[in-house]
Design a protein that fits this description.
The chain has about 475 residues and is α+β, with helices and mostly antiparallel strands. The chain is built from 11 helices and 24 strands. The strands form 6 sheets. An 8-stranded antiparallel sheet has the order 13-14-12-11-17-18-10-19, with helices on one face. A 6-stranded mixed sheet has the order 1-2-6-3-7-22, sandwiched between helices. Strands 4-5-24 form a 3-stranded antiparallel sheet. α10 packs across α11 (about 450-469). The radius of gyration is 24 Å and the shape is elongated.
């Protein structure tokens, strides 16, 4: 059994692997609850992707199950113990500025370019083919292997919550949804809104009618727009805005029409786990507006953003900065900004905290400082940090496989991202991003190198076999 050349097995199936990955990526599996149904709670696109994978699994001889449209699984093997491969098929919204169709899955320069190519539909197909290879060469297993297919990972994880209320918890497993070599520790993740407590009369020479930026807590916003009404030299503001854009190497425009001026700004999207990797369009636009005297309510909102969030992604101004040796710094991403003159403003924040941080204490500090400056904390959710002992058999096995397949040392890594690995008591994130490759998840022109797709599939095949043999 040790003579299996896993890479050759993948190369023998390479053309079909690429085609299936492209077909899978062409399905626009973005959350769409407005068009959800009882059997497809997260919308038709996500349901189509789930049905696609379950149908493929049935055709290839796996036991498949759809768990109420919230999740599904594909299983092979036999035995009391269960090895879990936790994947997700939902993707974040495509955003703007792509060089090709975000759901075209075109191949350019040896890369498949599509939303979800790296996070997480490309790696999901790699894991699927890994299981398929083991099944096709008929290797004996003493454990069951189950690919668990999530559908709401990019939002609220309602899929795995629903799934594990009904289904068995794997003994151990991995999520193909982060970096190689092995991610053994993940920060805690809290999402919440800070909302203006008092809606004040919108009076003054210059009034902010609306301000919007961002779609998700866990994405750096790549577009922002503000609409102002008032008297005075609005055209001068447009000219000053052009200077501001040039000084900060930004793209945007100001549109002036009688008593109204609209400012638009393009930022750079990035994953919310490291806000410094992007350019937050909302924060940049708020920093421009701070130079003007707006109506009282708008001034309160814009000044709050500038005082506590501009140039501060570590929570220093809020008094919650923290770091440890396992997972590094606490980070705060301002993922959603919204303001209207009649309702006031709010910020949607994504806070990622180290494994040794006391989140109850952090939340209390946030509530106290927000209250003091006229905001209240609402819509709080929290996913606790996750950490697996470095000597666990799961980690030892994956280290052995990675080193045999790549010839590189399998160091242990911690991340700010949250993967499905934290759903398991003994779960780690394992690939697909190789060291030195840029992390383009959640960014425009997201891609997965075809060579990396092939290599990842070989690693997963050996890993699944070693864990379940």
């Amino acid at each position: 059994m040790n003579q299996i050349n896993w890479l050759d097995e993948v190369i023998n199936r390479k053309e079909q692997l690429i085609k299936d990955t492209q077909d899978f990526l062409k399905i626009k599996s973005v959350l769409d609850e407005e068009n959800g149904t009882p059997n497809a709670p997260f919308g038709p696109g996500i349901d189509e992707a789930l049905q696609y994978l379950l149908a493929r699994g049935s055709e290839d001889g796996f036991t498949s199950k759809n768990v109420d449209g919230y999740a599904g699984h594909l299983e092979m093997g036999s035995g009391d113990e269960l090895v879990g491969i936790l994947c997700h098929i939902d993707v974040v919204p495509e955003g703007d500025g792509w060089s090709s169709d975000p759901f075209g899955a075109e191949i350019h320069d040896g890369k498949i370019v599509a939303r979800g190519a790296l996070d997480d539909k490309g790696p999901t197909m790699a894991a699927y083919y890994a299981m398929k290879i083991i099944k096709e060469i008929d290797l004996p297993l003493t454990k069951r292997v189950r690919m668990i297919i999530g559908t709401d990972e990019e939002s609220d994880w309602r899929c795995v919550d629903h799934y594990f209320k009904q289904e068995e918890m794997p003994t151990m497993g991995f999520a193909p949804d982060a970096d190689f070599p092995i991610i053994y520790a993940e920060k805690g993740i809290a999402d919440f809104d800070l909302v203006q407590k008092t809606v004040l009369p919108s009076t003054g020479k210059l009034r902010l009618e609306s301000f919007t930026s961002g779609l998700r807590y866990n994405m750096v916003p790549d577009f922002a727009e503000a609409k102002l009404e008032g008297e005075g030299e609005l055209q001068e503001m447009v000219e000053e805005y052009q200077e501001f854009l040039q000084q900060n190497a930004l793209v945007g425009r100001g549109i002036c029409d009688e008593n109204t001026v609209i400012f638009q700004l393009e930022g750079v999207s990035a994953h919310g786990m490291e806000p410094e990797h992007g350019k937050n369009a909302g924060l940049f636009l708020a920093s421009f507006l701070e130079r003007y005297t707006l109506d009282e309510q708008a001034n309160h909102y814009i000044n709050f953003i500038n005082e506590y969030f501009i140039g501060d992604s570590r929570g220093t101004g809020l008094g919650v900065a923290y770091s440890d040796d396992i997972t590094g710094d606490l980070t705060i991403n301002v993922g959603k900004l919204s303001y209207t003159a009649d309702r006031g403003g709010q910020l949607g924040l994504n806070l990622r905290y180290p494994v040794t941080n006391d989140m109850d204490s952090t939340k209390q500090k946030l509530e106290e400082i927000s209250d003091k400056v006229g905001f209240k904390l609402e819509n709080y959710s929290n996913s606790a940090p996750h950490h697996v002992d470095k000597n666990h058999p799961l980690i030892r096995t994956l280290q052995k496989v990675y080193e045999e397949q790549t010839g590189e040392e399998a160091t242990l890594v911690s991340i700010g991202g949250g993967t499905y690995a934290r759903s398991l008591e003994a779960g780690v994130a394992f690939g697909p991003l190789f060291p030195g490759r840029p992390d383009v998840a959640h960014q425009k022109d997201e891609y997965f190198y075809i060579d990396d797709l092939v290599k990842t599939t070989a690693i997963y095949a050996q890993a699944i076999y070693e864990l379940a043999k």
